[in-house]
Model the fold of this input.
Amino acid sequence: MTLFVSTSLLTSCSSDSGSDDQGNEPSQGDYWPAAVGNQWVLNNGSDISMKIIGTEKIGQSTYYKFDKFLTPSSSDITGSATAWLKKTGGDYYIKLDDIVTNSGGISSKISGYEYTFFKDNLEVNGTWTGTYTQTTTIDIPGVPAIKMNVKYTGTILEKGATAVVKNVTYKDVIKFKLKLETSVEGKAAGTSEAEYWMSKDVGLVKFIFNKVASDLVSYKLN
Done:
């Protein structure tokens, strides 16, 4: 299983409306430490590793590149999509590059996207929302591009929690959920929801999607 966005939700443009006026304050700490070499290993029946392998300056921001990134979906796209993390104050953004595939001589492209993954400066029940539009193109004459509109809503469920994961106690945990609502040509196409537990100065310690939990089993921070 993979952390939250299927290949059918990759997008070409993003417009984030920000958070609601529910306790938006300065960042309260680092809930996803970013440095080259940092690594997190989660298990949901088998081990899944995420490691930061580099950085890149894009515009005025520094992005941290993962060798693999978990996205909750029905299919594993981590082998072909490059994922990045950006942090600005209390806001954490995830960016995925375009995915280009070739099968049987037919190529296709799913456009990349960037969205607000998490806000550590909101109070409990605080929310943030955004929208983006997916574009999928297939290299077959006469086949039009497929566009899907996505609305996402994040909600803080709990702050300052103590959580036990795989017999390890983590303090100062923020729990939140992220909901995706998709539509194609104005018609609803599906809804997905995942829950994340982020521990201060550690990172992701638990991820729940479709009632299946991925638990942190080890991590390394530089």
